[in-house]
């Protein structure tokens, strides 16, 4: 019987906190300059025009020092769409990106495991024409 009483009180506590959580989450959504879109990518509010832009494209443009062309894709190497570190991003053409994912899926189907990161990085640059942004940062610093 005590467990039922504990469950009931924890449920009451959850209900009591709910309005405060909803208010906090809605305020954070309104005043934050970053949010996730429906596909899991991070949207960042642009300071110049106030529009939402994909953060990984903004990071890539900052490292490359130019605007990305409409046919260029920013690939997340580890597959996590909210991980926008320069070491996790690679800029490539849309066709190269599609070819890379066909190769990646074929390797998984054949061996039932994904290729190692080193192999992925080598294939991205040599075979599919990608530019690793982590390397660009190191070249600028060095």
TrEMBL record:
SUPFAM superfamilies: His-Me finger endonucleases. The chain crosses the membrane at residues 12-31. Pfam families: HNH_3. Residues 56-98 form the HNH nuclease domain. One of its GO terms (molecular function) is endonuclease activity. Keywords: Endonuclease, Hydrolase, Membrane, Nuclease, Transmembrane, Transmembrane helix. It comes from the Bacteria. This is HNH endonuclease. The lineage of its organism: Bacteria, Pseudomonadati, Bdellovibrionota, Bdellovibrionia, Bdellovibrionales.
